[in-house]
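Researcher: Next entry in the queue.
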Amino acid sequence: MRSIRLALMVTAWLAGACALTPAAMAQTAPPPGNAAPTADNAVLLTVFFKHDQSRPLSELNAQLDKQGFRKAFPPAGVEVVSWYVVMGIGQVATLRLPASRLREVNRIIEDTAWGPYRTEFYPTYDYKAVGMAEHEKATAN
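Model: Structure for this entry, 141 residues:
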């Protein structure tokens, strides 16, 4: 558990996105029940790709193609946990990757996504099993 917290803290520092509070770090314990834990070196990273709304979508897509975004992202061996379009914002992708590949993912985004997108990065963890278990516990009483 300590190495997971350390990886999350390093991710937060490297990404420059947000600081983990002691309360948030305390919640990084693996979810109870049948949820499979991730490897000690795996981190989740949520990336916001915010569209440049001052330009038409066709122009943005052409620039993404020219910069090789679709070929480079996601890199091989990085798991895409989710990837959604958020209307009015852009796209939000959550990736699972070894902490050692964080720089690589960042550089791919810098080299291929900047221009059409403004990006934000957030270290992330899966809270669904914990949240749902707490909801069920609260509604059972």
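Model: Residues 6-38 have pLDDT under 50 and may be disordered.
Researcher: Noted, moving on.
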